Every structure is written in structure tokens, then in C-alpha cells.
Amino acid sequence: MADYDVLTLGETMLRFTPPGVQRIDQAPHFELEVGGTESNTSVGLARLGLNVAWLSRLPANPLGRRIARTLAGQGVDTAHVVWSATDRLGLYFVEFGDGPRPTQVTYDRADSAMSRMQPEELPAALFEPGRARHLHLTGITVAISESAAATARRAVALAKAAGMSFSFDVNYRAKLWSPAQAKAGCHEFASAADIFFTPIRDAESIYGVSADPETALAQLQAEYPQATIILTLGAEGAIGAESGKAAIHQSVFPAGTVGRIGGGDAFTAGVLYGYLTDTNAESRLATALRWGAAAAAFKYTIPGDMPLFEKEEVEGLLHSGNQPPQVRR
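Given the sequence above, the corresponding C-alpha cells read:
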């Protein structure tokens, strides 16, 4: 048995949020959260019962230690984090909107410790055959710096050599790079992926695919024929297809609105959980999509970035038949 079900690699930051829907320039104080797409997915996987290690580079100061301790407290192995004596932690600020004022995210992450991570800093022993089953990366890691992209590239090469499966989520951030840069930067990762995730809105802007989900899916299958393609469709749910097979649709579960940030990461965690635990190849993708939809819906009820659900809760929703929840007494 492998030591880890999943390895992830990426940047996690501290999130500062004005209380309620106050603006940053009127807030007397900020609520503090830990957030990062790969670590959010790691937390979701750990809370669903898988063994997960999160790889990153953090400053050796109280801010960096808060990140590591928070994730470790959720069951994620942070023992392989690289510690820097001189670099800083990335920060971001979320100003929640209401009505015509949209939610705004402001990043302060330039020259962060993770953006300076080098390929040789990867824990090579974790990528030996039999140590882990699966590697998950996102386009955010590729976008933050050349050295982070090179580190991600090395991680994929090591994982493939060790016989691990690999998933890649485009997770486009317009404040990090343009659609053309994202297409060029993500191509080699998407070409190596066993599972390829993207919201359809990002696929339209980056890959120029159709707005029709089935057509878009077919276009991406033609581009990356080796991968299981999974498109998220917002309120319309998700659609996915394994290589050479027909599309499978998954509707959304009834969801809240208090914790939309991190919902995509929870979806990814649910999909990977289903994919790695269902031994029936014929039902695996359908199972994975259903777990993803249930995990995302539950995350929408939870403030903050991390999917702090219990496996039993997600599984209960999975089998609820989309019935509204009852008060538990």
C-alpha cells in the first residue's frame, strides 16, 4: 500500500476579509483565513479519508507556521514543506460584494516563498515507486513564477516515472496571466494529465471552445485524447468523459451561498476521492462526478476557503435524492 493517496503542490496564503460586506477601506478589523487551491483540495481529500501530502515552500516565521499548522490540523501531511529563512508569505484580501457590487479579490503575493521554489527542492523520495498513487496540480502554480512552473514540471516527470496518475486543473486567474499565456503555459501539463479539469467559461476564453458543453467537451477530447475531461458548468452542474467514451452529465445538489470561494476545490476533492476509491472502471467517472457535486454543494454552506465537511455529511447528501435537509435533533 502506498504511503499517500495524493500529493499536491502549490501556494497557500493568508486571506484577510472585512466582516460582513464592508469595504476594505472601512473595515476596523479583518477576519483571517488560510486559503490556497491545492491545499483546499488536500483538506477536502483528507476529510474524506485519504492520505494526502501537501508540498510547498513557506517562510520560517509565525505566518508560515500558521499555514502549516492549520493544514496539519485538518489531517494534511505538511512534513515535506520547504522552509525559507528570508522569503515572505503571500497574502490576499477578499471584499465580499452585494447586489451590483461584485466580490473583489486583491492579491499581495509577489516574490512569495512558494514563487521562489526550485525543482531540486522537491522531496524526491516521495516520488519513488510505491510512495504515492496520484499527483494533483493547478495552473496557478504554473502561473506564479518560472521557477514554480519548473518545479511543477519536475513533479509531473517524477510522478509519471513512478507510475502515478496525474490530474491538472487549469484554475485560471486573470490577475496572473492572459488567456494566451495560460494556454501556452498549461498545454504540456494538460497533455500529460490523466484527468483534466476546467470550468467551461475558462475553456471558452483560453481554448476557444464552443459554449455548448458537449461540443466543448468533444473539442477538448480532440486536443487531449489521453485524458478524462471534466468541465464544470456553474449552476448547470458538470459534464465529463473518459478517453473515447460518451459524456456523462452531473447536476448540482441544492447549495448554500455563504462559502462560494473554494467550491471548485471541493468539487475537485470529491471527484478525486471517487476516482481513487471506485474500483469499477465502468462506474468510476459517474461516481466521481457525483462525489464532486456533493462536496461542492456542502462547501457552499461553509465560510472560508477550506471544505470543512465530514465524509458522512457529503455521503448523506450524495444519497439524499436532492431532498431538502431536515433539522437534526
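The chain has ten helices and 14 strands. Try to locate this feature in the C-alpha cell string yourself.
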